[in-house]
Specification:
The complex is a heterodimer. By secondary structure, chain A is mainly β. By secondary structure, chain B is mainly β. In chain B, the strands form two sheets. In chain B, strands 2, 4, 5, 6, 9, 10 and 11 form a seven-stranded mixed β-sheet that branches. Classes of the chains: A mainly beta, B mainly beta. At the A-B interface, strand 5 and strand 10 of A face strand 4, strand 5 and strand 10 of B.
């Protein structure tokens, strides 16, 4: 059974950094692309970016709104995907979800809440 | 970016009703579209991929159709557990983009 568990969300001040983790199990992690999405309170869903699997070199793609500040990486030996967020802004306040992509994002974690406030 | 216009933004219906919601893409996306259901405080759940293929375990009262620029999600014989917010997601081009969501409420 596939499991995705995000962690690392917190209340942080603007300008600070945060690293989110998504620990996975139940599938051959290195073979699959993994995505991050976010959802601001009371708002819709937004794609943040994804990282391809080992076969495609673990390359990454990002939404324009986060390019340069967000970095997705993966540790295939531990089946974990990371989202590094730098120079946090109040607009980054959201629930952050990681997903396992099969055709489209199929499996979702429960999310981890990032609140950016002074 | 590919814009996804989802309508209606909200829908009021009764148990047993049939409802339909639509997503229109600003350019052709073949059938690279998924439908997601989200309940308050929960992560989204994928219902349909490839515009019309039901995920395993999803009741057959859910039906997706369409290709190119216009897509629909139909729910036949609404059940109490179906009241939620529904989103479409296109993955034909980057960035992936969602519709604004349709909130399905009990009448």
């Amino acid at each position: 059974e596939v499991h995705l568990v995000e962690s690392g969300g917190n209340l942080v001040q603007p300008g600070r950094s945060l690293r989110l983790s998504c620990t996975t199990s139940g599938f051959n992690f290195e073979d699959y692309p993994m995505s991050w999405f976010r959802q601001a309170p009371g708002k819709g869903l937004e794609w943040v970016g994804f990282i391809r699997g080992k076969e495609y070199g673990g390359t990454t793609e990002y939404a324009a709104s986060v390019t340069g500040r967000f970095t997705i990486s993966r540790d295939d030996s531990k089946s974990i995907v990371f989202l590094q967020i730098n120079s946090l802004k109040t607009d980054d306040t959201a629930m952050y979800y990681c997903t396992l992509n099969t055709v489209t994002p199929q499996y979702w974690g429960q999310g981890t809440l990032v609140t950016v406030s002074s | 970016d590919i814009q996804m216009t989802q309508s209606p933004s909200s829908l009021s219906a009764s148990v047993g009703d049939r409802v339909t919601m639509t997503c229109r893409a600003s350019q052709g996306i073949r059938n690279d579209l998924g439908w997601y259901q989200q309940k308050p405080g929960k992560a989204p759940k994928r219902l349909i991929f490839g515009a019309s293929t039901l995920d395993s375990g999803v009741p057959s009262r859910f039906r997706g159709s369409g290709s190119g620029t216009e897509f629909t999600l139909t729910i036949n014989s609404l059940q109490p557990e179906d009241f939620a917010t529904y989103y479409c997601l296109q993955h034909d081009g980057l960035p992936y983009t969602f519709g604004q969501g349709t909130k399905l409420e009990i009448k």
